[in-house]
Design goal:
572 residues, 6-stranded mixed beta sheet, globular
Length: 572
């Protein structure tokens, strides 16, 4: 494929990368040899460098190694697949995913400005091995600290600094579905899991039936000469990645006896599917062997919150800071980014600081190598002690969300709250996922990177170019924090708890979806969806978000606070 130098440079700039003429020429040759577009080439390089833990900046030797390890194997697999089947419909798959933001490296030049000077010696060489304490040079040489890289709403003249002595109310949205403590896992029965998955189809069928005025659902496998409405779950007929030729539609036990039939989407003008997605539409099955879908019903969002948030106790507005781990660079446990974030919180005094795990990251090189001189629990308790020390003099309330990447915590989803020895009235421990009520503002949060997992599995055709917005919409319309099935290899799901604690029964005012994809703030059907990205990106600094919510007019309130919300994403 002929690719221009400008196309390659543009795609590299999407990841904040640059390359000299030799690198560009090498990439152009690889595109021609392996029939890749400029976007495919750069995306392939970013994925490969992250997998191998290379520097994301491309070099000639590393490009040669990638060609040997990945491109030639991919070409061989593609040739075998082309011989075995030919897709009936052109599909955009995971290779077209854009805006992935993993490592952003900057040339060391001027020393970056920090929010305040570093004075804390919490993580000192006396308690840590020298290798783990050594600060990251790339983090110290970063530029643009405190710079706003994304905004939402009118942020001109917004005062982000508070000094009010007021501790806002934080509670679970529903006490019936909140996960409060650890539970036994790895003891599920397959029939119980199957029953839960079947119930999800039945529940979705009831919602579609009310919205679309369906009198009776058809059986997906019974032959019919007329168009019938059906509902079911998207599946694949093999273990490979989903594609237009491997689509299956699986019905529920009650409506289709649990059968699954091949799904023909050649008649659809557009579609967006992923494994586990529950869809409804109309089509025909002439011989009982293949269901030809003619149209797909639009997804149904959860009902909005009818109660108007009352921010009278917050005086002028509600201020929230959101950050997602890791809180230290991958080559150190000095936790400099964490210290900078806590100093920002202490200075600006937001009403709420939402800190999302991992705090003790399993992907940290020091932890992977086993060179840590103390236990993971001791390291985590030091972080908690630092948080409590920083927030005691101020009115900020800190909410901690766990992650399955935390080596000291339960490796199960839904993930129970952290266990801490030292607690505080200003420290709120929540589960992953969770739906919080902060002074009437409904905030839904998950630490699991569902956006990235969905992005790798979704296939789409003739869809709008805003793929990240579409992925957010999938989560809301499926009414579930993790609608992907089967789940990603990194996620261990307990489906008994999943049914109770992973649903989204109401349209939240704010949905927090931390991801390795590039940061964003989007309005999705009146819900403000935010990806603050991560506080660190391997060896350098990342980003975090801050949100300001003004008082809401009850006369014009329709379930959304979009018009009363301003937000920014800042570099740490």
């Amino acid at each position: 494929m002929n690719v221009s130098d400008e196309d390659l440079k543009f795609q590299l700039e999407e990841f904040s990368l640059s390359a000299d003429n030799k690198i560009i020429e090498k990439m152009r040759d690889l595109c021609y040899i392996h029939q890749l577009s400029a976007e495919d080439m750069v995306t392939q390089w970013v994925a490969y460098s992250c997998q191998k833990k290379f520097d994301i900046q491309p070099t000639l030797p590393l490009l040669d190694q990638m060609e040997k390890d990945e491109l030639k194997k991919t070409a061989s697999k593609s040739l075998k697949q082309r011989k075995s089947y030919a897709p009936t419909t052109p599909v955009y798959d995971a290779t077209t995913i854009d805006l992935v933001s993993n490592d952003t490296f900057e040339e060391p030049g001027s020393k970056a400005q920090s929010f305040v000077s570093r004075t804390s010696n919490l993580f000192s060489p006396t308690s840590m091995s020298p290798a783990s304490f050594t600060p990251s040079r790339k983090y110290n040489s970063r530029t643009g600290s405190g710079e706003a890289v994304a905004t939402f709403g009118d942020v001109q003249g917004v005062e982000w600094k508070h000094s009010d002595e007021y501790s806002c109310s934080v509670k679970a949205y529903s006490n019936k579905t909140v996960l409060k403590e650890s539970y036994n896992f790895m003891c599920e029965k397959l029939r119980d899991c199957g029953s839960i998955l079947n119930d999800m189809i039945q529940e979705a069928a009831e919602n579609f039936q009310k919205k679309c005025e369906i009198e009776e659902w058809g059986h997906i496998q019974v032959p019919s000469v007329e168009t019938v409405p059906v509902v079911g779950r998207i599946c694949s007929d093999n273990a490979a990645k989903l594609n237009a030729s491997s689509l299956l539609l699986e019905g529920s036990q009650e409506m289709s006896s649990g059968h699954a039939v091949p799904l023909d989407v050649s008649q659809l003008q557009s579609f967006s599917f992923f494994p586990g997605q529950i869809i409804a539409g109309k089509g025909i099955n002439n011989l009982g062997k293949k269901f030809v879908m003619h149209n797909v019903f639009e997804g149904i969002y959860p009902p909005p919150c009818e109660k108007v948030p009352d921010l009278a106790n917050c005086f002028d507005s509600l201020s929230i800071v959101v950050a997602c781990g890791p809180y230290t660079t991958c080559d150190s446990l000095s936790y400099e980014p964490f210290q900078d974030l806590m100093k920002y919180i202490k200075i600006h005094q937001p009403h709420v600081a939402l800190l999302i795990g991992p705090f003790v990251d399993e992907k940290n090189e020091v932890i992977e190598n086993g060179t840590l001189t103390e236990t993971h629990e001791e390291l985590f308790e030091k972080l908690i002690a630092e948080i409590i020390t920083q927030i005691e003099p101020i009115s900020t309330k800190v909410i901690l969300i766990p992650s399955t990447r935390d080596v000291h915590h339960d490796f199960i989803y839904p993930t129970p709250p952290y266990k801490v020895k030292n607690s505080s009235k200003r420290l709120y421990l929540a589960s992953d996922p969770c739906i919080l009520d902060i002074e009437g503002v409904i905030v839904a949060v998950t630490s699991t990177d569902i956006l990235f997992h969905l992005g790798k599995e979704e296939i789409s055709y003739q869809q709008m170019p805003d793929r990240l917005g579409r992925l957010c919409s999938h989560i809301l319309t499926q009414r579930n924090f993790y609608p992907l099935y089967p789940p990603n290899d990194e996620v261990n799901i307990n489906y008994l708890r999943y049914e109770l604690n992973a649903g989204i029964p109401i349209l939240p005012h704010i949905l927090i979806l931390p991801s390795d994809f590039r940061y964003f703030i989007k309005d999705i059907n009146g819900c403000c969806c935010i990806n603050p990205e991560r506080l660190t990106k391997r060896t350098t600094g990342g980003t975090f978000a801050r949100i300001k919510i003004k008082p809401i007019d009850g006369k014009t309130y329709t379930g959304s606070i979009i018009n009363s919300l301003q937000s920014e994403i800042l570099k740490i």
